[in-house]
Automatic annotation (TrEMBL), chains A, B:
SUPFAM superfamilies given in the database record: PLP-dependent transferases (SSF53383)
Official protein name in the record: PLP-dependent aminotransferase family protein
Residues in coiled coil: none
Lineage of source species: Bacteria, Bacillati, Bacillota, Bacilli, Bacillales
Cofactor(s) for this UniProt protein: pyridoxal 5'-phosphate
InterPro entries, per database record: Aminotransferase_I/II_large, Class-I_PLP-dep_aminotransf, PyrdxlP-dep_Trfase, PyrdxlP-dep_Trfase_major, PyrdxlP-dep_Trfase_small
Pfam families: Aminotran_1_2
Length: 398, 398
């Protein structure tokens, strides 16, 4: 059989993380590569109790549900969103299979082949893959530690007439950045004027180390959902657990409705057992106290890794201490190719993601992303020693 | 904000079932419309126990999983498939968010705009929606109670050079048909020769009323997965419960791998909590005994509805008694438009799906689909009375 695959496979780059996992198969590897939360803090007992409550609801709990998602969970999430100054109704929300599906659904309803999408530099690689598979033209906007540079954003909007700007303004993946309030407002204003849609991806916003700092979402700055040019998405993957695969998107009800139509034909609806479990969890478990707990542990792990990075004393090494989220973005000396260092690192028993994979264009090859949330103290120390060893061997062979 | 949606929205017809649900909102309606299993038989206690076993596995159960799906469940399903003479390895299987996602993923990796897909006449409407949204050209092959008519299939393959043939050979939706063995073999042979891929959709195969009958799947007739031109998909939605949203597809490992790549960017993976729960359910619960139970009840309900149809005495009424599955396909007198009858039926408090929605082309307006699995005896009797009343009023007004 000669399979005649779609041409959309051509635009489809293989995931670097996936290739790395192949390299690590069967080996004992300390991984700073994935974006995994720490398993030891998963609230498994509360999850078990919440599921029991679902079962107690009776057999109807196992029937088909709405494409839009379990309504009590949407109502509950509306209340949580309101606490963050995002005011929406359940009709302005769609529950999805993780926030990854939001990126995919929006691309399906909004992007045609050849349409332009602007992204940060660097940005989330699995968003790039979705955009590429649809045949979009992706340009990156020059960015610094405060977010996209407004002059470059305005220039690229004028030049390319993009349909969409994709951003992770709070504790970005991979750079761990927080956009300044000024840049958030600037993004909103410039895009509103040019009628460009913004997808604000916020999986990490709750993992904030400075309890006093306030980082208002772009969606909240826009005011209301109706007619808004901002769609906001988040997920339970980092705050409760990834296995539920439950995310949500809020925005104008017309856009939400179009996404729901595509979702209906994509999978009818996401697991309503999981949605019901999360509803009961929100009702009976102090999720905010739980988030405070993981913030504390993640900050401790971040500080440990930062300290170990400081100890490395590689000339030309640069990074910013993250204010939240799950990643440290590291710039290596200019002559180092992180992809090559990676191969040596895997030999030594440690993994990370080479930064080049996070660029829409002109990759910076001397960068890498380190995850600090998944690995405990002992293994973080050990892993960083292995990384130092890998660099030593790499430099000897260079 | 002037939203600039993708042109793929143009090809997107609204779901008739969805429109019907709108008509019925807030009303007490007896529905023969949906494809819903009967809630009263959901094995909720076994599900609760299976979930407890997942929780007992420890916190790792809540971490990210593989895109391909929870491996022990794939292994377990391989054993179930082998019992039906379908021999595959876990690498030749992908777990999905219901079998609906299989249709979507295959369309994404295999179909380009303008490609031709052949379908049965009539066929599953949500498959038609997926194909239409991708911009495929869909032609229906003349079909009778034994399946597609081979001469027409061969002629249309020669004429249109299709990439894909989509079929539901066992207890089809909506027609409730079972393909003869001869036609199954014919389909396989003709498509193999012309290098046309077959998607065999089998959500209802387990709901078989005659325990002695044997309906080998087209996939099993093809022999092995490697290099095969048959992909086979099924789901737990009709045998355990829909809320899990867990389906699977088996086929050549290269095709499966491409579908997994698209799935990764579509939603990373489906709920692994649900997949783990189903694994423990298969290990500790007699699913086959459960299926025997629901077969018995569904057959009883089918016979009740067939008896009530016989009592209607509408001139020109035609149907075939189903050998399994969830639907009776009814041909009304030629001058009746089921869509108009439907509006009257909703007034009377009963719903069905007008058959015209299940045709890729040249719809037969005098047809309707009745579901017999979801409604109990009392309401089935009452609903059929309401349907008779609706017809009476309809004929008076005609």
């Amino acid at each position: 059989m000669n399979y005649r695959f779609s041409k959309s496979l051509d635009g489809f780059s293989s995931s670097a993380v996936r290739e790395i996992l192949k390299l690590t198969q069967g080996k004992s590897i300390i991984s700073f590569a994935g974006g995994l939360p720490a398993e030891e803090f998963f609230p498994i007992e509360a999850v078990g109790e919440a599921f029991q409550r679902v079962i107690q609801q009776g057999k109807g709990a196992l029937q088909y549900g709405l494409t839009e998602g379990y309504k009590p969970l949407r109502e509950s999430l509306c209340r949580r969103m309101a606490n963050k100054n995002m005011h929406v109704t359940p009709d302005e929300m769609l529950l999805t299979t993780g926030s990854q599906q939001v990126i995919d659904l929006l691309t399906r309803v909004y992007i045609d082949e050849g349409d332009v999408i602007l992204v940060e530099r660097p940005t989330y690689l699995a968003a790039l893959q979705v955009f590429q598979a649809k045949g979009a033209k992706i340009y990156s906007v020059d960015s610094d530690n405060d977010g996209m540079i407004m002059e470059d954003l305005a220039a690229k909007i004028a030049k390319y007439n993009p349909k969409l700007v994709y951003v992770i303004p709070t504790f970005s993946n991979p750079a761990g950045r927080v956009w300044s309030l000024e840049r958030r407002k600037g993004l909103l204003e410039i895009c509103k004027k040019a009628e460009v849609l913004i997808l604000e991806d916020d999986p990490y916003g709750e993992i904030q180390f400075d309890g006093n700092a306030s980082y208002p979402t772009v969606f909240s700055l826009a005011g209301k959902a109706e007619g808004s040019n901002v769609l906001y998405t988040s997920t339970f993957s980092k705050t409760v657990a990834p296995a539920f695969r439950t995310g949500w998107v809020i925005g104008d009800s017309d856009v939400i409705r179009q996404m729901a139509r595509f979702k209906q034909s994509a999978d009818l609806h996401s697991s309503s057992i999981d949605q019901q479990t999360l509803y009961h969890l929100l009702e009976h478990f102090d999720l905010d106290a739980h988030i405070a707990l993981i913030r504390e542990h993640y900050e401790e792990r971040m500080k440990l890794m930062v300290g170990l990075l400081e100890g490395l004393k590689w000339p030309g090494l640069k990074w910013e201490q993250p204010k939240g989220g799950m990643f440290i973005w590291v710039e290596l000396p200019e002559n180092i190719r992180a992809e090559d260092l990676m191969k040596q690192a895997v030999q030594e028993g440690v993994a990370f993601v080479p930064g080049s994979t996070f660029f829409a264009e002109n990759p910076q090859y001397n960068t890498m992303r380190l995850n600090y949330t998944h690995t405990d103290r002992e293994n973080t120390v050990l892993g960083m020693q292995k990384l130092a060893k890998a660099m030593e061997v790499y430099l000897q062979n260079a």
